[in-house]
Amino acid sequence: MMSLRLCVSSVAMAAALLASRALAAYSSPPSLQVPACPHLSVASFNKTVPDQKDFPPTEVALCYGADTINLAFSAHNETNFYFNASQGTNDAIWEYEVMETFIAPGDKDPQTYLEFEVNPNNVTFQAFIYNPTKVRADGAPFETFYINNTLEAGFTAATMLDQDQQLWGSSVSIPLGLFNVDSGTAKGTKWRMNFFRTVVAPATFPDQTLGAWSSPNKASFHITPFFGHVEFI
Fold first, then answer.
1. To 5 degrees, how large is the angle CA 73–CA 215–CA 173?
2. Is the dihedral of CA 202, 120, 40, 125 positive or negative?
């Protein structure tokens, strides 16, 4: 049994190595300098993952405070506002329409990162992901560590829907302490981040259209070499 496990592990790591080599054929991830609040920087995208076709315009405005990373998601050209009303915190809201951010401190391709999602019903998902292959290789470890007590932990989210303008947006705060950044010390820190949006209609569910700030080379968000480079200035 042990030799079988070692074989499976070896196959998974070999697949991860081949995937990482394939990444070299793609352009470098984008970079963004983010100021202290109330000033903002904006990450925007309008292309699908991975084929780079037209996608509804999406924006994420960012700034940092003494204790939080603050993000304002804006989903334009929205026609469905599609969510499952029975879902609650940390349910599989990604199966419907969500906006997401993946965040890790430092400038290396991360193995562990925060995944945060919010849907048009203001339901959120927040968990740390352990993805040691960095590409979610088949057969390799991939673990999710949920954060359930969101208010106590310092998360906030407020969502607005404007069906006449085909727009929904969410203002989100994520505590810097999750990343061992002490109060008032965020300036000068470097990060890896990516931003995503899923689009799906009742008639097409569960088939989604995916969009990203830094598009991976396949329809998976968990490919960390594509995370963008962010610096708090």
1. 25
2. negative
Location of structure tokens 């396949």: 218
Sequence-separated (6 or more) residues with CB below 8 Å from residue 127: 90, 114, 115, 144, 145, 146, 147
Residue 19 clears pLDDT 80, i.e. is over it: no
Pair of tokens at residue 150: 């969101």
Q: Which domains does the chain have, with CATH numbers?
A: 2-232 (2.60.40.1190)
179-196 confidence digits (pLDDT tens): 999 999 999 999 999 999
d(CA 140, CA 162): 42
Q: What is the pLDDT of residues 145-183, one digit of tens each?
A: 999 999 999 999 999 999 999 999 999 999 999 999 999
